[in-house]
Amino acid sequence: MRKKIIAGNWKMNTVKEEAESLLKSISAQTATSNLSENKIVVVATPFPFIPFCVDTFSGFSHIYSAAQNCSEHEQGAYTGEVSAKMLASLNVQYVILGHSERRQYYNESDALILQKIKQAQSQQLIPIFCCGESLEIREKQQHFDFIKTQLEQCIFQLSEDEIKNLVIAYEPIWAIGTGKTATPEQAQEIHAFIRNELTKKYNETLAQEISILYGGSVNAKNAQELFACDDIDGGLVGGASLKADEFINIINAMS
Ligand code: PGA
To answer: Domain total for the chain?
Structure first.
């Protein structure tokens, strides 16, 4: 049975006091959220707050710490970079890779993202691989081809055993931080498409095991409708994950 996951992506927000108070509030409130092995919460804080996040979550079940990025290298002279090995040594379990903001502002290519995924997996971190099209591509009706290429050039290079330990997030760029969510029909259509591509490349059993999250202006109001779709296994939540109450309501919207 594939996991349902609500993942918060704080991006470059909060300072120490805010981060600590938000993490305490989220962890305390999830205690009554009906989480289980198959319904989990992941929170990707900025790097400096990760140790506090891991410590805070250690007393709670089914809530995990994530990073928002990692280096493609194992270690060495790469000033300013953070390795998957460092994250693993802090007991981080997940890492977001290939987010559209990394692709856009830091020129991350599918090939580079693949190297990062391999690094993460070599340290037993679970990558949350992001894909999704721009508004321009959607308007030209090229979104299916675009996403297929992102999959083929990146995660479809992985073996069956490797891709099993990975989460996919479909995040249409036009819906990120814009308040413009994809409709449940638009999101479901792409999620079903991705699952079908997984079936064609690997097999049906594997495709049914992989969690595919939706991201892009998810909030407490639209979450339930999105999560009710057959192929949507939760959400990758940006802005709304910075408010404890809103984030908890999103978690509770997942059946
Ligand atoms: P948003 O961001 O929820 O603020 O649109 C989602 C994301 O970028 O992961």
So the answer is: 1
